[in-house]
Give the backbone structure.
Amino acid sequence: MDATPNTATDKHRAYRRRLAAQGNHQIVVALPRETVAFLDELKERHGLRNRSQVLMQLIEQGREVTQQ
């Protein structure tokens, strides 16, 4: 493996550190294509930048419903 600081592994590690410093955590999920297409549709409809924002909105809505 390349010992330079620009390896993909080092970049990913630095990215995860930046996320953690912001109080966030990265996860990887396996979803059916239809679900991903639905997330993309919601992303476009609500003018969001990424799927993470869509998931955060859906989770918050779910929390609101369960806390009522």
